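Can't paste images in this forum, so I'm doing it all in text. The chain is below; anyone willing to post the predicted structure tokens underneath?
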Amino acid sequence: MKNQINDIKNQALEEISKADTLKKIENLRVKYSGRKSELTNVLRGIKDLSVAEKKEIGEFGNLTKQAIDGELSKKELQIKNEELKNIDEKEKIDITYPGEKFAKGHLHPLTQVRYDIEEIFKSMGFLVVEDREVEDEFHNFDAMNMPKDHPARDMQDTFWLKNGYVPRTHTSSVQARFMEKNKPPLKIISLGRVYRNENSDATHESNFHQIEGLIAAKSGEVTVANAKSIISEFMKGLFGKETKIRLRPSYFPFVEPGFEFDASCPYCKGEGCRICKQCGWIELGGAGMVNQNVFKAVGFTEDEFEGFAFGFGIERLAMIKYGIDDIRLFHAGDLRFLEQF
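Text version of the structure:
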């Protein structure tokens, strides 16, 4: 029996020395050291031996099992260390190696321009207000001094909903609703999406964005000079300190007198180029002293307050700022266009 145990030990040590994975080590542990191992089966025959032989073979069997278990543990540790070494080699990071660049999203160009506009006006003490996009006829037209037969009320110019409401045609309605709850003095701008029944082309869209501003105070405290100064500062903040503006007489039902305002071309600095059609000026929006009928519509006494209002399209400003010649690009979803900003 002693020779049999010794043969099992030699065979076990030889196989352990050749094992190169943890799975093989586990299989050898079951084969040579488990409850149903070859060594255990041999040692079960001790019961048939004499007392002296039981003691001798028992001690020899225990030493053999300890030797096999020791070699198994030693080999297991060796394999684990080797695997850890390989992992370190595979997963180590070379901090001097250039990192990979990951594409990151960014704000839409219209959103970028809108944020710029808000920051400029906030710096001048304006409050940014927003309101609903679907408006009733009163706040969209009547409160803005547009008579019942005004062309803007035609279906050719405005989208009408079945209940008599309209997707707002301008953000001036926000000013009317704000003044119903707040008395002057006030300085506000309203920005948002507006809708017009327009055919889509390079300079027109049925869905675009506007900004409208309003300064209102007691009679005699607001003048055209105040408003011109504010518009001038805004244009300088958006297009550069060299930007100049000019006012031209015009008509809008919600202001009297009314003006259209131009800015000197930011590309040619007024010298004349393709962007400004060689005239040195770019038309940007409308403005004027608030018509007293607008103040009356929101509940104020006539001549109690005076104000100056102005408005322009955000797409128009973005096109000039970035040199874009087709308004449809903003909403086309073309990543080649959007990734430039």
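The first strand starts at residue 127 and ends at 129. The chain has a mean pLDDT of 85.
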